[in-house]
Design a protein that fits this description.
globular, about 110 residues, about 45% strand, mainly beta, 9 strands, 6-stranded antiparallel beta sheet, about 0% helix, Jelly Rolls
């Protein structure tokens, strides 16, 4: 990852207004920082959330609270709990879909 167009910056995540994003089921709320070629987010997934699309974008995702399942198109499923992460590059071969039964809070950089 090459970070460009980003100066030193401090983010008070409690002051960032959440944006609502509906899933196939459930809702997620994104607090977003975007500068240069970097987007960082804290995302709260409601219980029963399931993404409405397969994502081919690269991410570094860290679970802060709850449990999150990441399905890959090859049929594998990766169960993540607090202090677990996944890393995937921008690659259609890494397309993934997120869902959670109990809800989760994650930090992502992409």
């Amino acid at each position: 990852m090459k970070i460009e167009g980003v100066g030193f910056d401090v983010t008070d995540w409690s002051a960032v207004v959440p944006e609502e994003h509906k899933g196939e089921t459930g809702t997620s709320y994104w607090r977003v920082y975007s500068q240069g070629n970097v987007r960082a987010r804290i995302v709260d997934y409601s219980p029963g959330f399931r993404s409405d699309h397969w994502c081919g974008r690269g991410h570094v995702l860290l679970v802060l609270e709850g449990r999150l399942s990441i399905a890959l198109e090859d049929g594998s499923v990766h169960e993540l709990g607090p202090r677990m992460s996944f890393q995937a590059g921008d690659d259609e071969g890494n397309r993934h879909l997120a869902y959670t039964a109990e809800g989760a809070k994650v930090f992502l950089v992409d």
